[in-house]
# Entry
Amino acid sequence: MTEAPPPDAAARPGRVAAADTEGWVGVELQRALARVDQLQQDMAEVTAELRAQQDEVGRLQEALHLVDGRTRRHEAGQEMAHELKQDVAGMAEQLAAESSLRRDLAAHLQRAEQREGAGQQALRQALEAIANRLERYEGHQASSELRQDRLLGDLAEQARDDQSVEARLDTLERRTATEAEAMRHVVDEVSRVAAALPDVLAGLEELRQRSRSLQVDQRRLDEDIATVRAVRDREEALLEVLDQQRATRARVEERLNASEEIVEDLRRTMDGAAEERALIGRQQAGIDMRMRSLDQRLEAQRLAMLEHLRLNMLASEEAGRREMQELERRARVQRDLLVRLAEQTQEIEREPPL
# Structure
């Protein structure tokens, strides 16, 4: 009778297959966990780089705000310089107008001085004419007195000489008529002088008024000259301020050029940072895709492992069931053998001894 195989011999292949499957699943799980750890490290590094980029972007934004503030201050300085230029141009126009006014006042003063000189010359001539007339009148008066003295002397001489009264009277009448005519001429001359005197006085008053107006004009001209001098001083101060503003503008332009270079560098850095952010975003997207793919693969492996384990369990159950059936069959066979042995033993015992 053939011997039945041991029960472990039938279950050994299933156990070996299950052990191999469990070993492969463990290796795959370790690999998957290692890859997950590596991905987590990559994610941490990417997150740190993103934070560093965000900090750099914040610093760049602060630098841009600072540059914008400096740019606004520079624009305010340029507006101030433009306003100062406009003020200087207005002052130049005002100085030109005041120079023209000063020339006009000088010409007016010169004409007034000429008119005053002409009036004084006319007054001097009128006074000289009056003085000459008065001198002539005094000369006539003196000559009349001399004539009267001579007449009295002649009368005395005639009285002494016993001349005739009629001849003396005729001579006296002629001399008196001559003196009367001379006196009439003198009176006419004095009348003309007296008639011309109001005109002369009016001319003198007009000359005084002109002199007062010229003095007022002179004071105004002095005030205008003082104003012009003050404006000139202010112009010099404005020129100094303008020079300072030009120097300040040059310095501001230099700073602005440096700031523009810094802004350009910052812009290039920002562009590089944007490119890096885009690259990091693409890397992150790739990592996300890889993570999703890994999750899908892990899920598929988990499902496959579960299915494999289920199949192994089913196979193990089937192998165990078959092993149990085989054991039961062997037990039945052994019982049958034992029964046969017992029967044979009983038969042997029943046989008589030889």
